[in-house]
Structure formats: structure tokens, C-alpha cells
Design brief:
- This protein has 618 residues and is of the alpha+beta class.
- It folds into four domains: 3-276, 2-Layer Sandwich (BirA Bifunctional Protein, domain 2); 282-405, no CATH class; 408-447, no CATH class; 472-617, Threonyl-trna Synthetase, Chain A, domain 2 (Threonyl-tRNA Synthetase, Chain A, domain 2).
- The chain is 38% helix and 19% strand.
- Strands 1, 2, 3, 4, 5, 6, 7, 8, 9 and 10 form a ten-stranded mixed β-sheet that branches. Strands 11-12-17-16 form a four-stranded antiparallel β-sheet, with helices on one face.
- Strand 9 and strand 10 form a beta hairpin.
- It is globular and about 80 Å long.
- The chain starts with a helix and ends with a strand.
Length: 618
């Protein structure tokens, strides 16, 4: 079963059961500045799980592109990836446990063709302090489903302590069988939805557990062990609760189902392999790497490097296709880290020549059917990644020479390498680990803070509110920046994000994310829109707000972490609550009404970096 076949089979299965099929959202969430990436299939669905009406109805299914930056360090084993697809289906107050568990079991056993004897499941143990009991309803449904294929399914508790005890259905606490965006119930903020879940695992066989070199060989066997015997392939979340201000949980007005199935993992178990890098979605990438390196993936000495390169370049390509190119800030930081780690691991297996542009084209071809926009933009994508490769080649060469000169990589040395050569701290940390000692984030942060304190003392009073002066002209340009940002997002799309600005008394320079040069039509439309807002003489209002409240009100802040808990928000429009065209975190100063700015003109527009455009406004 090839990758495209599995994806389409899943969507067709749920379409035949009354589901509307929706396209994948972008890897960068729209209208959600609280998170950098779309990390789960349900992320774009949150408002509908809370009760808003979805335009496509109460039954929805898709295959969602996801990226989890926190998994970067985990890549290198047989199952972890940073980019992945999540097969999803939702019931928004429609069907519930009976239909969901039955359909997923049917899909796995009849459509995918998995042996039901190799399937094991978990359910929520319950928690008295939450006022939520054991999920006996799901247990009863699972027993009936297994009985239907001739399997007697026994439910077992505390398998993590006492072993599997011949069971097939296992209870676990909220650390394993509760799902929300924030994790366990204790971490959920007020208003966040969540609920118990039921996970399905595939059994690769006990021999993996008993290998003489396994660190798990003396521990009780259970499905949530990381020994490699079991692989989670799907999770049905019963999204029916909402966290209250007092810490308790209240049932939502509608009971929802939020299902997520690991596309790459289901593809792997279909082939009865526990290695996702041996599936068709990775096979061409691995073949490419074998060709350029002269090494074989089957060689255990190089397997980790193959996996890191394959995952990171697939992720970097998909991110770039969604407008995220390597840079030093926000999402771009993670794109840069992916490319640079891939290059470093490539050198470890003998790849010295440039390779990222060609490999990105291999990735694009893999997704030509499912995500044709990747292939359509591949020239821009490959060029952007190649620019980063060239930059890092110089950085790596200089940095590694300096590393060889020091006896031990301390936090101070690591920061000096970072500050002087742009040498990533993560690489210093990995090199230190290879040499047999730890280099902590705290050491690096301490050296970085000491440098920042010194720089702050030296430059005290030099800048104010992001401007070199607060003259009338620069104040006008500062407000014009907000209008320009709003117009670009309106004309080009919400993927546009501010990447920097520079203001003098003579002009405004503004950098923003966008994959291609603006056409004359687009430039004229942006210019006309700004002048229309200026001529409308819209009021500019300022509010001091809690950061969380500001974000919830719709204020934009692409560098959220740099702002304190109390923030200043400037809003342009007749009503800062309901009728505005721009609302942003900012340090000021600004004009009182847009009419004070006067007519503007876009003087020039050009590339600033891969995926970044620069516009000059006068």
C-alpha cells in the first residue's frame, strides 16, 4: 500500500460515513499567535469543539500536516519525526464512543488489513479528584469488537507495575490517556477543552523486548513502554470536558470525538515494520542519501544520521512550502536548526557536497499528489534552502576550527561561538555530548544574559520604542508600518508576518515573509489600501493590557516572548473592540489619527532573504 493510497483510503472511508473532507491547514496556524506551529490535527478545530458551527457540518475528516519542534532531539530512533501527517476525523456533537471505536477498528482490520491479534488498546483509568471515573463504556465496546473477530479481550489495570497479565485492554492514568493541547488536566488553563482517550497499539512481537542488550529487559512489559515492541497508531479523544476557573471540569454542551491517527505509523505497521524510515514515504529520500553518501541505511553505524537527515530535510521542505524559511527568529529559527542539523549529520556519513536543494525536490515529488503546492513552489523552496546551506558551510567550518582549539566547551565558549560565528548552541551541546560531558542550556543562557546586560549598559538611552528618534516624521512612519502590515496581510494573505523594520526621517523599510516578488497589481493594491485608510482619518487608540487578554482580543505579536505580561496595544479603527483594521503590540509613538500621515507611496520592493521580501515606503 503506497502512501497516497492509504491517505485516500482513509478519507474515502469516512466520506462514506457522512464526513465532509477538508484540506489540511498550513503548518503555521492562522489567527493563533499563541503557538508557532500546527502540532496536531485538532488545533485548527478548537473553536468548533467548543461549540461554534463548522460550515461543513458535524462530521469532518482530513489529513493534517503537523510539525512538532520539541521532537527534534528525539529524531534518530525508528519512530520519531518532526513533520508528520495526522489522519483525523471529528464528531462535533454528533456520534460518540460506539461509532468512533467501531469505525477505527473496522478501518484498521478491514481496510488496512491489520491482524486484530496484533492490536492492543488503552483507556482512561479515571481520577476521583477530577470527578471523572473509569472509562467502562469504552472497555465494553472494545470487548465486543474483539469478540466479533474471535478474540477474548481481558481488561487489566496497572500493567505498568505488574505487566500485561494476559490482557488486551489496559487502564492508564491522565499522563497517558487524557488529551488536551496543554497536556495533563493540571496544566490546562481555564476554558481549555480536553477529555479521556483510547489509544490503539500494534504489537511487533515479544522478541524485541527480550533482546539481551535491551535496557527494558528487566522491566514489566506493557504497551506504553519504549522498548520498541509496541507502536501507538491512533488515538480517539472523547473531547467532552472544559477546565473551569476553580480547577474543576464541566461537561461541554456537546460531546465531541477528536481522532488522530499517525499516517506514517499506520503505513509502517501495514508493512509489519517498526521503522517508519523503511516506508514508501521515506524510501526515495533514503535512496537519495545512499547514492550521495556511498553508505547503506542498513549499516547500524550510520542509520541514525540517515534518519536525522531524512526527517529534517522533509520537514524543512514542507515548512518552506508554507512560507517558513531558515532565519534567526520565530518559526524560521526551527527551520534553520533543521537544515543545519541535517548538514552536520550529512558530513558524519561522508556527504561533503551541497545536497539540500536536490533532496528538497525529492521530497516535493513525494507529495506531488497530496500537496501539489509543494512541487509548484519547489524552485523557490530549493533556492531558499540552498542559501542556508551555503551560509552554514562557512559557519560550520569556522566554528569547528574554534572548537578544536578549546579543551572543554563551556557555556561561555558556546556563546562566543554563537555570537561570533552564528554557530548554533545545539551543535555545541551535541559535540560536548559526543566528547563525554554535558553542556547545559543554563550555562549558555547565563553567558548570553551577561553579554546582554553589558550591551544594555553600553547603549542605555540610545533607542526608545524601537525608533532612533521620536520626531514628527518618524512617528508618522511608525503608524504607517502598522497600516502597511495590515494591507499586506489583506492583499497577499495571512501568511505575511513582519520580519523586521527600520525607520528614518526619510523613509520606512519593512521586511515580511512572502515567497515571491510582488506584482505591480499587488503593489498598487497595497498602496491604494493604505492611502484609503489614511484618507478615512481613522483614530489610533492605545491600551495597556494583560498579554494573554491582548492576544485573545486579536492583537498581533509575532515576537510574543519578548513582551512582558503587561503590554501596550495600538489599534487603528473606529472601534478598538469590534471595528478595527490593525491591532498590534507596540512600544509607540504614534499619530492620533491616520490622516496625519499624508499620502504614501511604495518606492521599492525587493528580496531581503529567501522567503523574505523588503519594501521601502515614502
Amino acid at each position: 500500500m503506497q502512501a497516497d493510497h492509504l491517505r485516500s483510503k482513509y478519507l474515502e472511508f469516512f466520506k462514506n460515513r457522512g464526513h465532509s473532507i477538508i484540506p489540511s491547514s498550513a503548518l503555521v496556524p492562522e489567527n493563533d499567535p499563541t503557538t508557532l506551529f500546527t502540532g496536531s490535527g485538532m488545533q485548527p478545530m478548537i473553536e468548533y469543539l467548543l461549540g461554534a458551527k463548522h460550515p461543513k457540518g458535524t462530521r469532518i475528516a482530513d489529513s493534517q500536516k503537523c510539525f512538532r519542534s520539541q521532537d527534534i532531539e528525539e529524531v534518530g530512533d525508528n519512530r520519531h519525526t518532526t513533520f508528520f501527517e495526522m489522519l483525523g476525523n471529528w464528531s462535533l456533537g454528533d456520534y460518540f464512543k460506539k461509532e468512533q471505536l467501531t469505525w477505527f477498528f473496522e478501518f484498521l482490520t478491514k481496510e488496512v488489513g491489520l491482524d486484530p491479534n496484533k492490536l492492543f488498546v488503552t483507556v482512561f483509568r479515571g481520577n476521583d479528584s477530577l470527578g471523572i471515573g473509569k472509562d467502562a463504556e469504552s472497555v465494553a465496546i472494545w470487548k465486543e469488537l474483539f469478540a466479533g473477530v474471535g478474540i477474548t479481550a481481558t481488561d487489566v489495570d496497572f500493567s505498568e507495575r505488574d505487566g500485561m497479565q494476559g490482557g488486551r485492554i489496559f487502564y492508564f492514568d491522565e499522563k497517558k490517556n487524557w488529551w488536551s493541547r496543554a497536556g495533563v488536566p493540571a496544566n490546562m488553563p481555564e476554558g481549555e477543552p480536553g477529555g479521556p482517550d483510547s489509544e490503539v497499539f500494534y504489537d511487533f512481537g515479544v522478541e524485541k523486548k527480550l533482546h539481551e542488550n535491551s535496557v527494558f529487559k528487566d522491566e514489566p512489559c506493557h504497551v506504553n513502554c519504549d522498548c520498541g515492541r509496541f507502536l501507538e497508531i491512533g488515538n480517539s479523544v472523547f473531547m467532552q470536558y472544559q477546565k473551569q476557573a476553580d480547577g474543576s471540569f464541566k461537561e461541554l454542551a456537546q460531546k465531541n470525538v477528536d481522532f488522530g491517527g499517525g499516517f506514517e505509523r499506520i503505513l509502517a505497521v501495514k508493512q509489519d515494520t517498526d521503522d517508519v524510515f523503511l516506508t514508501p514515504i521515506f524510501e526515495p529520500i533514503i535512496t537519495f542519501l545512499e547514492t550521495v553518501s556511498g553508505k547503506q541505511y542498513s549499516d547500524e553505524k550510520v542509520k541514525q544520521s540517515f534518519r536525522v537527515i531524512a526527517d529534517h530535510m522533509r520537514a524543512a521542505t514542507m515548512l518552506a512550502a508554507d512560507g517558513v524559511y531558515p532565519s534567526s527568529k520565530e518559526q524560521g529559527y526551527f527551520a534553520r536548526r533543521l537544515v543545519r542539523r541535517a548538514i552536520r549529520y550529512a558530513k558524519m556519513i561522508g556527504i561533503e557536497q551541497p545536497f539540500v536543494a536536490e533532496l528538497s525536490k525529492v521530497v516535493a515529488n513525494l507529495y506531488s499528489h497530496a500537496y501539489p503546492d509543494v512541487a509548484q513552489n519547489i524552485e523557490t523552496v530549493s533556492q531558499g534552502l540552498a542559501i542556508e546551506e551555503k551560509k552554514f558551510a562557512n559557519t560550520l567550518q569556522k566554528g569547528l576550527r574554534e572548537v578544536e582549539k578549546v579543551e572543554k566547551l563551556t557555556g561561555e565558549v558556546a556563546f562566543k561561538l554563537y555570537e561570533t560565528y552564528g554557530f548554533p548552541f545545539e551543535l555545541s551541546q551535541e559535540i560536548a555530548k559526543e566528547k563525554g560531558y554535558d553542556l547545559s542550556q543554563e550555562e549558555f543562557d547565563s553567558a548570553k544574559q551577561a553579554h546582554a546586560d553589558q550591551s544594555r549598559t553600553a547603549s542605555a538611552g540610545k533607542f526608545k520604542g524601537g525608533l532612533q528618534d521620536s520626531s514628527e516624521q518618524t512617528t508618522k512612519y511608525h503608524t504607517a508600518t502598522h497600516l502597511l502590515h495590515a494591507a499586506l496581510r489583506k492583499i497577499l494573505g495571512s501568511h505575511v508576518q513582519q520580519k523586521g523594520s527600520n525607520i528614518t526621517a526619510e523613509r520606512l523599510r519593512f521586511d515580511f515573509s512572502h515567497p515571491t516578488a510582488l506584482t505591480d497589481t499587488e503593489k498598487n493594491a497595497v498602496e491604494a489600501q493604505i492611502n484609503e485608510w489614511i484618507q478615512a482619518d481613522l483614530p489610533v487608540t492605545v491600551q495597556t493590557m494583560e498579554k494573554k487578554s491582548a492576544l485573545e482580543s486579536g492583537a498581533i505579536a509575532f515576537f510574543v516572548e519578548k513582551y512582558p505580561d503587561q503590554v501596550t496595544v495600538y489599534t487603528i479603527g473606529n472601534d478598538p473592540e469590534t471595528n478595527w483594521i490593525s491591532k498590534e503590540f507596540c512600544g509607540g509613538p504614534h499619530v492620533k489619527h491616520t490622516g496625519e500621515i499624508g499620502t504614501i507611496k511604495i518606492e521599492k520592493e525587493k528580496a531581503a532573504a529567501a522567503g523574505i521580501r523588503r519594501v521601502y515606503l515614502v
